[in-house]
Amino acid sequence: MDKSNTGKLFVGNLALDTTQEELSAIFEPYGQVVSCSVLRQFAFVHLQGEGAAERAIRELNGREFRGRNLVVEESRGRPLHSTKVFVGNLSGMCTTEDLQQLFQTFGKVLECDKVKGYAFVHMENKEDALQAIEALHGTSFKGRPLSVELSKVQPSKQAPTGKIPCVNCGKQGHYAGECPVGKPSLEQYQSQAAVLAAAAAAAAGLPLQVQQSVHNSVYNTSTFDPTY
């Protein structure tokens, strides 16, 4: 999928019982509907195609749909103070809509990003998120016990893209590829790669134990290629 031609749209003022199929149908004339997530009275639509999102906004914003005037605009991302919850050990049968309905019983769900086996649920209110965690962690859902906890991602602490902190000479202020002392050993390269892999896991919001597992897996491999 060419992500450069995919636009994310916010669709508001929907009827309570609007379905994913109904909403997809009104956007399909403007481009390929990559995904459509319907929440309570609003939705997010990913529309692919050159200029597709702009055309949809121009034609559909303000249009009457099931007795309501649609609000269609470019998604501006989540509110600054939303709370991100990690949900792990998901069944293969679990859908985005299933998770949205599950968490909506505790408060307003802003968005749900599901990946194979786990998901991130963004809730408007932190207290609601904490209640959901307390109530749902360890409970059976679709035949599997859920792992539910606050996401530990800290975006402001992300390492710069493509930069591995130097552990070769022990000095700060430069990166591995810029070290003036010399080329690190294979073990040091493994350590550097493990740090970067763990940082990527943290940026993805994975739990601490998963981050540690990623670090150890990369560091202990005997087939590591030091080329980067």
Automatic annotation (TrEMBL):
For whether the record's keyword set contains Transcription regulation, the answer is: no
* A Pfam family matched in the record: RRM_1
The family database entries (SMART domains) matched by this protein are listed as:
RRM (SM00360), RRM_1 (SM00361)
What keywords are annotated for this sequence in UniProt?
Answer: Cytoplasm, Metal-binding, Nucleus, Phosphoprotein, Repeat, RNA-binding, Zinc, Zinc-finger
Q: What Gene Ontology cellular component terms go with this record? A: cytoplasm; nucleus
Coiled-coil spans in chain = none
- Residue ranges of every copy of the RRM domain listed in the record: 7-77, 83-153
The cross-references to InterPro entries, in alphabetical order and at most eight, read: Euk_RNA-bind_prot, Nucleotide-bd_a/b_plait_sf, RBD_domain_sf, RBM14_RRM1, RRM_dom, RRM_euk-type, Znf_CCHC, Znf_CCHC_sf
In what residue span(s) does the CCHC-type domain sit?
Answer: 166-180
Q: Which GO terms describe its molecular function?
A: mRNA binding; zinc ion binding
PROSITE patterns referenced in this protein's UniProt entry, alphabetically: RRM (PS50102), ZF_CCHC (PS50158)
Report whether NAD shows up as a keyword of the record. Answer: no
Which subcellular locations apply to this protein? Cytoplasm; Nucleus
GO biological process terms on file: centriole assembly; gene expression
**Top-level lineage group:** Eukaryota
**PANTHER family named in the record:** OS02G0815200 PROTEIN, RRM DOMAIN-CONTAINING PROTEIN
Q: What is this protein called?
A: RNA-binding protein 14
Q: Which organism is it from?
A: Gasterosteus aculeatus (Three-spined stickleback)
Classification lineage: Eukaryota, Metazoa, Chordata, Craniata, Vertebrata
